[in-house]
Amino acid sequence: MALKLARTVLALAATVSLPAFAQNVAVVNGTPVPVSRANAMVAEMVRQGQPDSPQLQQQVREELVKREILAQEAVRRGIPARPDVKFQVEMAKQTVLIRALIADVVKTPVSDAELQSRYDQIKKQFGDKEYHARHILVPSEDLAKEIIAKLKGGAKFADLAKQYSKDPGSAQNGGDLDWSPANAYVPEFAAALGKLQKGQMTDAPVKTNFGYHVIQLDDVRDAQIPSLAEVKPQLEQQMREEKLQKFEQELEKKAKIQ
């Protein structure tokens, strides 16, 4: 009779303990480590590229148990009460909250119509032509006129650019500015460039806020604009960042800051 009673008690004990084991991957010094925590860590590691497997789940279990042991020891030593630790915990909490908020704000996908509209806008601003130009930048109008006279007398543009130009980005390349749309330049420069024919140079110095330019147009071609499909990822990222920036600005305007 006693043996039968003992077996019954053991069976009941086992039955009662089943839900606890189902809910926890371990119990460390009486503190449960929930399965939900392990599942979340596994999901995050899978998201980062690791394949789900029994080995990964076992590694996660061991890591969570180790972390629980260390955390309990930190509590035993009173570490959570230290001001520096409180500060770091609060900052970490804020970081997690902000990251989750940002994910919520930008999770709505940018529509194809929005992407097409932005692409068309950029394409229009870019223009339909690209110009391969050279220039010589000098500080005075008189020197620019002197250079123009030398060029008309047969001097080579590249040689005079290396000798006189104050533009550090192009002087040693003979004044070469490579291919660019007109709107890549300041308005005065772009206007003068647009009036030139292939092979021509400006008859008079072009004044901008940088100084005085002598400009030569080497060539013109149709604008080499990448397709929407090629720039879609970058464009979508840019529009998401703009959306987030606008969201932050609106929050700042509504906030009462004293």
TrEMBL record:
Residues 1-22 form the signal peptide. Keywords: Isomerase, Rotamase, Signal. Its EC number is 5.2.1.8. Gene3D superfamilies: 1.10.8.1040, 3.10.50.40. It is an enzyme of class 5 (isomerase). It holds the Pfam family Rotamase_3. One of its GO terms (molecular function) is peptidyl-prolyl cis-trans isomerase activity. The keyword Isomerase applies. The keyword Magnesium does not apply. It catalyses: [protein]-peptidylproline (omega=180) = [protein]-peptidylproline (omega=0). PROSITE patterns: PPIC_PPIASE_2. Residues 128-219 form the PpiC domain. Belongs to the PpiC/parvulin rotamase family. This is peptidylprolyl isomerase. It comes from Pandoraea terrae.
